[in-house]
Amino acid sequence: MSNEIATYLNERIDAGDFPSAVYLVAEKGEIVLHEALGYAVVEPERIEAKLDTIYDLASLTKVLVTGLLYAKFLQDDGFYSIDTTIIKLFRQLKGTEKRSITVRNLVSHTSGLRDWYPFYSVFFDPRYKTAAAVSTALELPAVYPMDSKVVYSDLNFIILGADLADRIPSGNLAELALNDIFQPLKLERTFFRPSIEYRREIAATEKGNQFEEQTCQEKYPEIHIPHSAFRNYQIWGEVHDGNADFMNGIAGHAGLFSTAEETFKIAQQFLPNYTTLLKPETCELFRTNFTPGMNEHRSFAFQLASTPDSTAGTKMSPESFGHLGFTGTSLWIDPVKERVFILLTNRTHNHCLPFENINSVRRRFHDLAIEYLDKNS
């Protein structure tokens, strides 16, 4: 193992950035480094992190499930393409300003839709929560001109996830992911809505939804959301994201739980020499810059390392692509050297607001990992 990486991450654990970390570094399809540090749960009890600890991956759901499934759908369906407008996906948009938004806009966050909205601010019939959230996402006015700038938005992937779910009889994104990703890859610790039997094997997140309650007050002061709408207990074994929780734990933007090793198995699907779910040529989507000249470089669902101040660090190929999760997770893939970097932490656990911004930790982790690979390859 790399003593430098472990030493550095333990320092950040001791500093209070996060209580646990599981990291994995792979090259050319083989795991080179894999280690667990710290405590996955600090309260209400102490449970050490293990290599197979399950983490709430948060927004890694956007790439590992929604992005992967949508790329597979586009390659297998001759009628739709990346430039299909969403009016073809959602007929109710006819006559609205959003009718010309394309799949490309949604996957690259150039749709002009707002970054976030508390869908649980209106209490819908429990049977129709997901449909109501998606309907609201489609009806909310755009806040930026389409294609004017990159504005990272959960709404883009909530919409994409809903479109995917509508393509199977059950209308269940988790079932689609199970059938098209988890089972083919023989994943056993990757799922939405983990059952109670896994609780002690899952890293805990925030105690209550204080962060989201504060965010609602700051971003939408005109919306009165009662304190009772937010969870006030230790979130452990259920999704941290409030909108995903509102949507019964299954959404296109968040809700996925997995381990570092099984995250790696999904990550392999984005590399042409290792994918079994996509055609090799489809993998070009993930390293292609759809937003040249804009404030952020985005490919199909991912951010590119060529983005100024990305968390890729200083040594990764510019074509590398990655994504972060609010709970403290991250995935970066270098398609040139066929390397995968995974860092799973639970930075929201046992930590009062504000949570630590761990982007500098991610950059240093990647630089240390690349130094190790370059020295030992």
Alpha-carbon distance between the two ends: 14 Å
Characterize the main sheet. 7 strands, antiparallel
Structural class call reads: alpha+beta
Q: Output the radius of gyration.
A: 20 Å
Which stretches are poorly predicted, pLDDT < 50 over at least 5 residues?
none
Number of helices: 10
Characterization of this structure:
By secondary structure, the chain is of the alpha+beta class. Helix content is 29%, strand content 13%. The protein contains ten helices and ten strands. The protein starts with a helix and ends with a helix. The mean pLDDT is 94.
Structural topology:
Blueprint: H1 3-14, E1 20-27, E2 30-41, E3 47-48, E4 55-56, H2 60-76, H3 103-108, H4 129-139, H5 154-165, H6 173-182, E5 191-192, H7 210-219, H8 242-246, E6 256-258, H9 260-267, E7 303-304, E8 321-325, E9 329-334, E10 339-345, H10 359-376
Antiparallel strand pairs: 1-2, 1-10, 2-3, 4-6, 5-6, 7-8, 8-9, 9-10
Key attributes of the depicted protein:
3-stranded antiparallel sheet; alpha+beta; 377 residues
